[in-house]
Amino acid sequence: MARKDRNTDESYAQDVFDNPPQGPIGVHRGNRSIASRLVPFLIVIIVAAVAGVGTWAAMSGEGAKLFSSGSSASSSSSPSAKSTASASASASASDTASASASASESASESASASPSESASSPASSSSVNLSAQVRVVNGTRKTGYAAKQAAVLTGAGYTNVVAANPSGSLPSASVVWYQNESDLATAQDVAAKLGISNVSKVTNLSAPVVVVLMN
């Protein structure tokens, strides 16, 4: 006896799987450009060319020649650099030696000149002014003493010597006064000629060199 209650699609309740969402079926690629399709082939050709050149250089020894030529160039430049450095060092040493020699010569010249300058007296004949005015003042009671000492200076070569009497205060001992530093050598020479040991600088004198006789 046949069954009348067969299961059909209409006998089940509808669910979400009975109405699936509609959408594209499958994935389709767009058309690619000629450049993008040629790039892989170009990469393969370049890699093969580089590998071929490397293999050729290794088999023929050209790579070793290139490396050897580079090392030879660097080694050939090293001696020139060393020679340049040696020349610079030699020049510096010679300059230093020259400077030391010059300094030694200058020091020896200074040392040799200093004793001679210190040994020379300020009253040397080259700095004595025989034409300077020299006034001889008689501070003693000896009549004609100033004229007598003035004659001594005239006989020594002085051309402008004047004998005079005192007009102010007198020192306690014979002295030779001078007015300026340029008259110092003349004053010292006059003192030496007259046997006077005291030489002093005094301003506002009546003559560049004044001799005061007190004994």
Write the layout of secondary structure elements.
Layout: H1 34-60, H2 62-119, E1 134-138, H3 145-155, E2 161-164, E3 175-178, H4 184-194, E4 199-201, E5 209-213
Parallel strand pairs: 1-2, 1-5, 3-4
Antiparallel strand pairs: 3-5
Mean pLDDT metric: 74
Strand segment tally = 5
Strand content: 5-15%
Helix residue percentage: 40-55%
**Class from secondary-structure proportions:** alpha/beta
Largest sheet: 5 strands, mixed
Q: SSE order in H/E notation?
A: HHEHEEHEE
**Strand order across the largest sheet:** 2-1-5-3-4
Helices, by number, come to 4
State Rg: 61 Å
- Unreliable sequence segments: 110-125
Distance between the termini: 190 Å
Shape estimate? rod-shaped
Walk me through this protein's architecture:
This protein has helices spanning 34-60, 62-119, 145-155, 184-194; strands at 134-138, 161-164, 175-178, 199-201, 209-213. Mean pLDDT is 74; it is low at 110-125. The protein is built from four helices and five strands. The protein starts with 33 loop residues before the first helix and ends with a strand. It is of the alpha/beta class. A five-stranded mixed β-sheet has the order 2-1-5-3-4, with helices on one face. It is rod-shaped. The longest helix has 58 residues, at 62-119.
Brief summary of the model shown:
The protein is an alpha/beta fold. It is built from four helices and five strands.
Keywords:
single chain, 215 residues, alpha/beta, 5-stranded mixed β-sheet, 5 strands, 50% helix, 10% strand, rod-shaped
